[in-house]
């Protein structure tokens, strides 16, 4: 018989500020979207689009993931976080770096301020990666989920390094190829290397856990891990040195990896004992459905189909929108209300359990707001994609309004959780617990 | 787990039903997390597990079980032990637990 250890959760001040910053970044992103509808009618290398993309990728998605991961890493790796101080530094640098970077791109100031922002972000990623790798090194048991998470952190660091070099290249012009060439590498390492691998690693652990579907067959996950990483390595070398026509092959390898992950989740779904009826889980499945859109579009943007330039530009934009405002945003909107209520509840009530009748995590936020949030999100996303494809300003504006409503509902619920005060509780009167 | 044969054992289980798994929303007894209850002389020993290793609730649930049992049985020396073997599987959820879960 093995005796278990005590909880490995980090302090709440390490985790919770990430959620607050991310929620405010989502509001900022939506408001910026309201004033950027004109930017969606041309090439993706546009100052406003660069600002929007980085607020979405860094302030919204990466910030949420950092916070959630500091809480989840001890669960997945069964050990304590290596350094809480390093996590706080990574948070500060990511927050400050994101705001500076967004300001620089929006106003297209590509001088020393942009260099400083890129340096801050790279340092933040470095601290984060060291923290993840060192935590993993102490893990008593290594799993495929740990492989995904650690590798994703390394890809994040590489993405940040390429970003830093590109920021410096704006003024020093030392890179041999044109800027957009490296932008494609930077974007795809970030999207598939950081976000996709991370979400697969965490999702493979959490989604079956939430569904109460225990199954240990991780063959699909292992294959997905090797396929996606091999595709990223091949793509990186090809893009830098060979410029072959094999991009659709690498895209197919990533797509096959995603399909294997979805098959793994399908097994879990079939074995579930718990119905997935809460809005958080429903939104998670919406996100997984939305993943199919970039899965198809990646073949269009990586193949030379001879599409008219205007249509190709729109497809590129929809591809980006479907990842940052589609899959990534949808999964954050759902999973935040599967993880944050529990974290807040644990810090507020862990000492009261067993002495008083406590509320449950789901009682700490408004499920009604969450349902409205999910509905306005889906409407906003559909309008935005339609607006980009049809190049219609009124649809784009409608989409931006949908996202703004979504962000306000989301932020109201997140701050209701973050500002939760421990309630006065009634002590137990022993009788039948089921009454 | 095997049903306790003593009255105290049954009371222990009834008392532990006050502890609700916050994520799933059903009590730890019907969730099948309580593996063993033994009562000898003035010592009460409980073995329980969690749904997943590394669960952030580990210390919370152990402390909660100790507190609630100590309050309920002040005359006994209570010891709650967290164990991982055998590993918990969803098949351990009782019929009452499944009913509670589907009604949430």
Notes on the structure:
The complex is a heterodimer of chains A (435) and B (104). In chain A, 75% of the residues lie in helices and 0% in strands. Chain A has 435 residues and is mainly alpha-helical. Chain A has one domain: Cytochrome C Oxidase, Chain A (Up-down Bundle), CATH 1.20.210.10. Chain B is α+β, with helices and mostly antiparallel strands. Chain B has one domain: 2-Layer Sandwich (GMP Synthetase, Chain A, domain 3), CATH 3.30.300. Chain B is built from three helices and three strands; from the N terminus they run H-E-E-H-E-H. In chain B, strand 2, helix 2 (58-72) and strand 3 (77-82) form a beta-alpha-beta unit. The mean pLDDT of chain B is 85.
What is the secondary structure topology, with strand pairs?
The complex is a heterodimer of chains A (435) and B (104).
Chain A: H1 12-34, H2 47-77, H3 84-106, H4 112-137, H5 144-172, H6 179-211, H7 219-242, H8 247-270, H9 279-290, H10 292-302, H11 309-349, H12 367-390, H13 393-418
Chain B: H1 7-16, E1 34-40, E2 43-48, H2 58-72, E3 77-82, H3 95-103
Parallel strand pairs in B: 2-3
Antiparallel strand pairs in B: 1-2
Short description:
With about 425 residues, chain A is mainly α. Chain A contains 13 helices and no strands. Chain B has helices at about 5-15, 60-70, 95-104, and strands at about 35-40, 45-50, 75-80.
